[in-house]
Write a structure and sequence with these properties.
heterodimer; A: about 240 residues; alpha/beta; 8 helices; globular; B: about 260 residues; MetI-like fold; 11 helices
Chain lengths: ~240, ~260
Amino acid sequence: MADASAPLLPLVLENVGFAAGGRTILAGIDLRIEPGPRTVIIGPNGAGKSVLMRIMHGLLAPTSGTLRWANPERRGEPRRQAMVFQRPVLLRRSVLGNLLFALAVAGVRSHEREARARAALDRVGLGTFADRPARVLSGGEQQRLALARARMLRPQVLFLDEPTANLDPGATREIESVVQSIHDSGTKIVMITHNLGQARRLGDEILFVDRGRIAERSDVDRFFRHPATAEADAFLKGELPWH
Amino acid sequence: MRHRPRSLCKILPIGQPLRPPPATVNTLSLAFGEAWAMIARADPKLLEIVALSLRVSLSAVVVATLLALPFGAALAVARFRGRDALVVVLNALLGLPAVVVGLAVYLLLSRAGPLGALGILFTPAAMVIAQAVLIFPLIAALARQSVADAWREYAEQLHSLGAGPLASAFALLHDLRFSLVTIVLAAFGRAIAEVGAVMIVGGNIDGFTRVMTTAIALETSKGDLPLALGLGLVLLAIVLALNVGAHLMKERAQRHHG
């Protein structure tokens, strides 16, 4: 039996494809995700970014190809990776109750749960919100709570699917600083964003996904200065009309 | 059957010609007046029947709810072969006629039936079983529907957290608790208002298995309108009060929890 703290990474995808309803969404994805640098996935709408992330996180099974973690998670073991969605899904209970539920599912012993949950809330500035119903928080607060929940589980890899897409600039900054501190604590960050400024601020390397393929992968400075492919160039020009 | 037919023959007007009550305005208003008076002075006979009705139907709702909610939630969350067929059957059972349930439970509990050894036919316990069987599909089918709807929203998040089907099902039931109360109340309404099943398995024995609906049926056929009307008014008031309560609770909960 693998140690529950055994390293998940690197993650290797070989020739991964995904098709649904007769439509090919991803094809021939070869990808290696290493620990360390923050990976930001960008690309046009419908390129397959979210599907790629869900396959990596195990929410979708690829319809072709293989996906291999260094030490894969097993059924019944606590997860060593977490994901934050564009629209946070919170349970209809208190802010604290949401975190306690996640800890219980992760198999954390009951006497440890509350202290760990409260510490997680304090770190995202939601300490005084513990007893409020989670679903009446503002969008930014809900997303911070979702991040607190993910971080509290101490994942080795954190996937984020456009976590700030619905948020105002102030809330976006708060989320970015939490993501940064999660990275600083040693968690591998893999994030999808449509906000190119955010990709520059938070990314170390860019994965550019276009029409179901990985069109380009390079470090963030090079990607934005000299995109290697015509598709990336067109995408950046479209997204940044002042260039 | 040996020790009961005596009382049964006395109660059920078998073989007697039914006397249709003379439905003049005068008798109606008299009957209403007397019905009100019975309620106002808390007539012991009326109270006894109301109390048994509540006891039987509440027990049936508790039993059916404890079984049907987890069943419905599991049916929404788990994936297995034959699930769709099971859902179709469950939905079809929503329209289960009470008399058919009564007949089935009667056959199960009768002396020659598989559960005849229990000796509970023509007791309140048999009535609880019959009503629980009657409302189980109602609770399970409606709970399955609302859990399945919520599941679409929650599935990815719960999978991502690593929650298995059991933890997911209970988390969803907890999140839907306010809608589920409405379902359970609808089931209670069906249980306390049905007459066919309790008549068959209870036998409508005076002072023992006579509930509001069977009493209303009997008293009406006997022409004793005041008791029938009084019971009818109490039945309406109970069902109305429950629904008002459920509505208010749901409103408040939704304002509070979003």
